[in-house]
Write a structure and sequence with these properties.
By secondary structure, this protein is mostly helical. The chain has eleven helices and no strands. 77% of the residues lie in helices and 0% in strands. α7 runs antiparallel to α8.
Length: 208
């Protein structure tokens, strides 16, 4: 699963950096974010130390931000920042009593993610909540409904991302086989900032 996420993200970002948002590469890239979001939920659930997990993400966020802006030509907070905020929301929801305080936290955070803005914004938070609190068929239907909602805000290409959720829900055996290819933790954790830094440097030298 990690290999699929890294490769599809790399293809997506290469499409943005070098091929002027070439649509086929962007479509392939829609596979990456749902996998990363799903793994963030798994990390939150299974980590031995949420504090250390959080700190690792903060470090990756900091070293990724400048390459992210240069390589992808954007002025927003990179997606690891979105994951950090989402983790804080998950932590809060697990400790709040009553439905209305939880709804208030989710709504306020969604507005915050869009206002700054963060990469994937409220969409990213919503998908993480779907993976955290729903099960099996519900996850696929909720992700599809989320894509329909954002379709009316012009995010049509994101429809392709539901393919990753379908794979996560219905083909665990396939992902289990892929996961037999063990990759070093340092490579997995450093891939996001490293590939952005390489793309940013290539663009820098290409522009002279």
């Amino acid at each position: 699963m990690q290999i699929v996420a890294m490769l599809t993200m790399l293809i997506d970002h290469m499409g943005i950096a070098f091929f002027h948002n070439q649509e086929n590469m962007r479509i392939i890239g829609r596979i990456a974010f749902p996998i990363y979001a799903y793994l963030i939920v798994q990390g939150y659930h299974y980590t031995r130390s949420l504090k250390k997990y959080f700190i690792r993400l903060v470090i990756l966020f900091v070293i990724s931000q400048i390459p992210f802006m240069i390589a992808l030509h954007v002025w927003s907070v990179n997606v690891i920042g979105t994951f950090i905020v989402a983790l804080a929301v998950l932590w809060s929801l697990d400790r709040l009593a009553g439905i209305w305080p939880k709804i208030a936290v989710v709504m306020a955070t969604s507005v915050f993610l869009e206002w700054i803005p963060f990469d994937y914004g409220s969409y990213g938070l919503a998908l993480i909540l779907i993976y955290r609190y729903l099960r099996h068929h519900e996850i696929v239907l909720a992700h599809l409904a989320l894509n329909v909602f954002f379709y009316f805000f012009g995010w049509t290409i994101q429809f392709y991302s539901v393919a990753a959720t379908i794979a996560i829900v219905y083909t665990p055996t396939l992902f289990h086989l892929i996961e037999q290819w063990k990759i070093p933790r340092w490579f997995w954790r450093s891939f996001y900032p490293a590939h952005l830094a390489v793309l940013a440097m290539i663009l820098f030298f290409m522009r002279g």
